[in-house]
Amino acid sequence: MYIHWFPGHMTKSLRLIEENVKTVDAVIYVLDARAPLSCINESLDKLIDGKPFIYMLNKADLADKNKTELWIKYFNAKGIDAIAVNGTERQSAQALFNLLKKVEKPKVEKFSAKGVTIPTRLMVLGVPNSGKSTVINSLCGKKSAVTGNKPGVTKGKQWIRLQNGMELLDTPGTLFPDFKNQERAVKLALIGSVKDEVVDLEELSKDLVSALITLYPQELKLKYSLNDCNDAEEILKQICKKRGFLLRGSEFDFERCSKAVIDDFRKGKICRATLEIPK
To answer: What is the mean pLDDT of residues 137-148?
Structure first.
């Protein structure tokens, strides 16, 4: 399976980011806590070069807590401010506000000395379905940005005023023009950043089960009451039997099974899982 998904609107998104990044003071970079490294888009690095930024590891409630802490330490060791949040929780929004005060302090002090008050402007970046819009709504205290559980919901730029007076520019989720690293592409597909319609879900489910066999074998076994097995296809067959995913002639309905297992993972029903750790 080769994964590639870069629709035309993402090219426009890169142009939009390039045109507006000069007007902002800092960047909030939203990463999915289940695959933080895979969510970092190198094509954006040059665009935001020189701007202060914060890595926001969103959906931390679905990720492995210990591994999320490792990622925070990893980024901090590189001199990067990072915070783990659940975009739907108010306390997460407050924690981010506290970190943003550190980002805006130099500008506030500079203009206060001149007797001028000017709002700090921020830009929010992230891959599709990383939860940017949900985070923004939490920061605003009201529903300001369009949200959804599918990639590609935000189509254009939106300037939004936050509760603390800061101004925030939301941008559409953007992927890589070229998925040279297919391992990273698989992880992005698993967390829902790539549209399911362009992926072979049966192959993707096998990749998921193979990863869980290595990373969370006991949790996988417990969730589906499995017999001991280290083969992804055999495990999917067991799940088909237990869930009744069968076709005529008692053939396995791998299509339904694959969708169900991937959905269980995305909703955290198997366990709190993180697909990668810092090296």
So the answer is: 60
